[in-house]
Design goal:
The complex is a heterodimer. By secondary structure, chain A is mostly helical. Chain A folds into two domains: 50 residues; 82 residues, no CATH class. Chain A has eight helices and no strands. In chain A, α3 packs across α4. The longest helix of chain A is centred in the first third of the chain and has 24 residues. Chain B is α+β, with helices and mostly antiparallel strands. Chain B has a single domain, classed as Alpha-Beta Plaits, CATH 3.30.70. Chain B has a four-stranded mixed sheet, with no helix packed on it. The longest helix of chain B is centred in the first third of the chain and has 13 residues. The chains are: A mainly alpha, B alpha+beta. At the A-B interface, α1, α2 and α5 of A face α1, α2, β4, β5 and α5 of B.
């Protein structure tokens, strides 16, 4: 055929193009992570990596499996909806291994964090000016944190 | 070719390392996560900020969530006085002045359905997961901080040690295990609630019908999923 006469240089270019394309695909296959594009324009495996991070807060259900007595007491009182770790702090390590003892809590710091009187707090939230409320007594002298109303004094 | 070899080795190592075990029984397509923030319930104790820092190893001076205190005087609605000392981590100074109104606004990533931050990422390192959580692939992030600029809510930062973008993951490692987020777990008044918009039994649906719920900067059409109950018009 006349059209393919002296066409050798075209085939050489075609060969270089094919080899170049294959090399590009091979390098791209190595560089792009396998899960890239699994869900979208990102590495799908990143989702499982983030989900696999360790937890620090065990969650109140975990606390209640062992401390049912305190959970029952708390459910009767004003602090029923307050999570255990809201005051006790992150205790997933204690939930995994009960021999790890959580640190003792300081009511002088904890109670006022929420209940110190401030004009900025919602008006219906119970607040006291700690300096002249207890005459220097610590909070737990009168209030039990798991059920804070004073039963004897009839304070609700 | 020689220039590309080290990169190929790194990529090959990450392929060989494989992916960690996914949470069993968790199906991404069955959830669409968001957060309900009930302004009248927030007392400004800072528990959420501390819990977030403990759960996610957030470096000091950086915040995935923080609390702002607004003070709006009667005559100055357009210019509220806003404070957030150390993100509200140790609470707020006692307010004695009773004039005007005070309220606390907890802030965090809004996990936008049409998020500006994921759209600007040049390498596909930040993305919206199939269950509606905006996440960062820190192995892929270059630390260019384009997303930090793009977020209209100021919810992202460059991690000072890792030098990559960091942000709220909505405690993705917790919610995929059936737990709530650390901030919700630690909130004493229930001012924060994790919500699953795809779960028909989630109380959020009834709440949205019966309350005045707003998102931050609705004019930006980000599809924000942090829903604020009784959000004041002065909040920026």
């Amino acid at each position: 055929m006349r059209i393919f006469r002296d066409a050798g240089h075209l085939f050489r270019y075609a060969g270089i193009f094919v080899i170049g394309t294959l090399a590009f695909l091979a390098i791209r296959g190595c560089l792009v992570p396998r899960t890239f594009g699994q869900y979208g324009h990102y590495r799908g495996a990143a989702i499982t990596e983030i989900a696999a991070k360790p937890i620090h807060y065990a969650g109140r259900e975990a606390c209640e499996t062992c401390h049912a007595e305190i959970a029952d007491k708390k459910k009767q009182g004003k602090h029923a909806s307050v999570g255990c770790e809201a005051c006790h702090g992150p205790l997933a390590n204690h939930a995994d291994d009960p021999s790890i003892q959580p640190a003792k809590l300081d009511t002088a710091v904890l109670c006022v964090r929420c209940h110190e009187a401030s004009a900025a707090r919602p008006k219906n939230f119970p607040q006291v000016a700690s300096a002249d409320h207890s005459n220097g007594l610590t909070c737990e002298t009168c209030h039990q944190p798991h059920s804070p109303a004073i039963e004897a004094g009839g304070v609700k | 070719m020689l220039i590309l070899l080290p990169a190929a080795v790194v990529a090959w190592e990450s392929v060989l390392a494989g992916t960690p075990e996914a949470s069993p029984n968790y199906k991404m397509t069955e959830h669409w996560w968001g957060m309900l923030i009930d302004i009248p319930k927030c007392i400004g104790c800072g528990n959420c900020v501390r819990a977030c820092q403990a759960e996610n190893n957030v470096p000091d001076g950086f915040f995935r969530t923080w609390v702002e205190r607004y003070h709006v005087s009667d005559w100055n609605l357009a210019n509220p006085e806003v404070i957030s000392p150390d993100g509200g981590k140790e609470g707020f100074p006692v307010a004695t002045e009773d004039a005007g109104k005070y309220f606390f606004v907890p802030k965090m990533c809004n996990h936008c359905a049409d998020s500006p931050c994921t759209q600007v990422c040049p390498v596909g390192a930040t993305f919206i997961s199939p269950d509606g959580v905006v996440l960062v692939d820190q192995k892929y992030c270059l630390g260019c901080a384009y997303c930090v600029q793009a977020c209209p809510y100021g919810c992202r930062y460059i991690h000072p040690q890792k030098k990559v973008a960091d942000k709220c993951t909505l405690c993705y490692h917790r919610i995929t295990k059936g737990l709530t987020t650390a901030c919700c777990e630690a909130c004493p008044t229930g001012a924060r609630q994790l919500v699953d918009l795809k779960n028909p039994k989630d109380p959020i649906h009834a709440f949205l019908k019966t309350h005045e719920v707003q998102v931050l900067k609705p004019q930006m059409a980000t599809g924000a999923k942090a829903f604020y109950n009784q959000l004041d018009g002065s909040v920026r």
